[in-house]
Amino acid sequence: MKLDRYDQHILEVLQQDGRINNQDLADRIGLSPSPCLRRVRALEESGLIVGYRAVLDAKKLGLTLLALINVSMDLHTPERFANFEATVCALPEVLDCLLITGQDADYQLKVAVRDMDHYQSLLLDQLTRIEGVTGVHSSFVLRKVVSKTELAVAPPR
Fold this sequence. Notes:
Strand order of the largest sheet: 2-3-1-4
Domain HTH asnC-type: 3-64
Distance between the termini: 21 Å
Radius of gyration: 20 Å
Protein name: Transcriptional regulator, AsnC family
GO molecular function: sequence-specific DNA binding
Shape: elongated
CATH architecture of the largest domain: 2-Layer Sandwich
Keywords: DNA-binding, Transcription, Transcription regulation
CATH superfamily of the largest domain: Lrp/AsnC effector binding domain/regulation of amino acid metabolism (RAM) domain
CATH class of the largest domain: Alpha Beta
Mean pLDDT: 96
């Protein structure tokens, strides 16, 4: 889908404020409400906009420990990877699961847990019991320096 400047502006505004009403969005991008709504619906139907969600404060929910876990697998087969991926997708603590290259690990997980006891339980009772997991290496986040979900829509200037 080719994006013009209106589409790009719509995407930028919606990434910052997914709850903006159509009238306010139209005013911000310089279109009337009807064509603005048509454009938003076209962006949704094209699959470019995949959803809207609330961003929660993990610490206020008691999830005070953020960890990055590199996971190594014994076999690099589609079945082994599919089983691992299905299992970690079902774990509520897992925020991201990335299949990676350039490391000794096959996957990197980002998890949010209450504390070290919760982390230990996740690691020993869940992750290391997944068939094919041969090693894990964990790092703990001391502080988030950058945390954003917005993607660059327009080419860099």
